[in-house]
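Supplementary Methods S3. Complex input for the nicotinamide-adenine-dinucleotide-bound model.
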Amino acid sequence: MTSELTYRRRHNEMEQPAAYYGKPMKLIHYMLREQRLVFVLVGIAIATVAFTLFSPSPIPIPIPIPHYSDQLSMRSESSSLAQSRRIEYLTGGMGSVGGKIPLGLKRKGLRVVVTGGAGFVGSHLVDRLMARGDKVIVVDNFFTGSKENVMHHFGNPNFELIRHDVVEPILLEVDHIYHLACPASPVHYKFNPVKTIKTNVVGTLNMLGLAKRVGARFLLTSTSEVYGDPLQHPQVETYWGNVNPIGVRSCYDEGKRTAETLAMDYHRGANVEVRIARIFNTYGPRMCIDDGRVVSNFALRKEPLTVYGDGKQTRSFQFVSDLVEGLMRLMEGEHVGPFNLGNPGEFTMLELAKVVQETIDPNAKIEFRPNTEDDPHKRKPDITKAKELLGWEPKVALRQGLPLMVQDFRQRVFGDQKQDTTTSSSTE
Ligand code: NAD
Ligand code: UDP
Ligand code: UDP
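Predicted complex, serialized as structure tokens:
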């Protein structure tokens, strides 16, 4: 009995806190005995989980994320704005505030916006971005583009299509902006020249403002037209051009030149990461059938091959898959540019007509028509810079690419047998 009491007393003494004894070592011993430390740690863990799950959050409970499948990718502009505003609200309008992002809102993959993504070049670019798993938002007012060009992505949760005119501001949260929105064919951009200037200037300003706000990288699709009727041949990026500022093509030429200026000013003044591509004549499947460009007119072939002027003016034609590869390399790379992206193979319009006769229709007749105003006499890119810094050069020769385009046109116009019009078929 005595011994048991003695034992209990000793035991109780050992359980007294260190303050009682005034010796820190004893507290350590006390904690280590009978796994008390483990119980304390488990208690802390349970309290932390309970606090995280049940405590009122300073961030409001997120509004349910819209069902992409319901929208079949055709989201109204307002719902998209609401979504982006919601995320902006959650992040305090600062893109990322570095705080804890609620579960389900964490980003996966790259978010890319393609303005003009329902157009000819844009839709091929979208195909490539989607294929590599990016989340792609197409912003387009369907002036020259169409839903048909991107409808094969409808229903894919990584794809969104917003009917929106870039002349109006828009709020989105993205990592990359490919800014293509602008009619490219002379027939289209001359149709409403003031609108063309607004698209190039105000539209580009808005997209640069967006890039600045969310810290996105911005790629501008400029044009070889910035060289005007060039006095230097072939055209190198350092050439400043020979542009008529008051002619019928000026809305496009000067519009794109101003867009380049804006891009560089946002780069220098607001540290926006910009990329500038100067695109030379591009052709391929999904070109607008009635856009009046020479390759479309020749590919359509419901009339004789209409050669404007004496047909001695030259152009360099690149297949669309080559361009898309160049645009993506430029966006991913570290160089601002500008970079010429074009095929250096140079053809007179008469030579082009002969290629069409050789590869498509030997019976095609050539008919001369008066040329249009301010038509540049020569155009051929010097692509040394793109070769060296982007490791890029075109792969598809005109003779290979033209038949692919003609197949696509025939299928669309005359309903010929189904043809594969994707870009991959031509490059591989
Ligand atoms: P495209 O006309 O097929 O595509 C342009 C797209 O932009 C269309 O879907 C159109 O609906 C959309 N768009 C036009 N204005 C808009 C606006 N205000 N708001 C929203 N969307 C608008 O032309 P493309 O050949 O695909 O050209 C794409 C880009 O490449 C253009 O910026 C063009 O200037 C440039 N580019 C093209 C070529 C070429 O040969 N295709 C050559 C040089 C430069
Ligand atoms: N802008 C936009 N989306 C954004 C941020 C800006 O459309 O997410 C537009 C904005 O409406 C403005 C333009 O981009 O007209 C330029 O924006 P910036 O912030 O550079 O200039 P500011 O608004 O100060 O004139
Ligand atoms: N062109 C032509 N026949 C046509 C359409 C155009 O000879 O049916 C000429 C036009 O005069 C220009 C060249 O082809 O010299 C390229 O014109 P396009 O409109 O395709 O593009 P641009 O380079 O002028 O933007």
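The pocket of uridine-5'-diphosphate (ligand 2) is lined by residues 169-171, 205-206, 209-210, 212-213 (CB under 6 Å). Residues 193-214 form the longest helix (22 residues).
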